[in-house]
Amino acid sequence: MVAEKPVVIFSKSTCCLSHSMKSLIRSFGANATVYELDEISNGEQIENELIRMGCQPSVPAVFIGQQFIGGSKRIMSLHVRNELVPLLKDAKAIWI
């Protein structure tokens, strides 16, 4: 689900942190692929796999350049340290 996509976000439509992460990443011009786990048939299976990968809580879970980066704390930490934009550039999610 993350192959060949520069940015993938696993989310739930009712999660405010998921909404914030989607908004933040889109604010840089990245067009993230978003999977709303509460709206897809295999969402529970995907959520269980995210938990097995160490996502606590399970959403939001952000992948950049096919690599699991983390949840909202990790993404905000990268943003505050000015390290998020370089990751997005390296993944060719943004060009500027």
TrEMBL record:
GO cellular component: cytoplasm
Coiled-coil intervals, chain numbering: none
Cytoplasm keyword on record: yes
Subcellular location(s) of the protein: Cytoplasm
Annotated Glutaredoxin domain residues: 7-69
Listed NCBIfam families: GlrX-like_plant
Family: Belongs to the glutaredoxin family. CC-type subfamily.
Protein name, per record: Glutaredoxin domain-containing protein
Organism: Arachis hypogaea (Peanut)
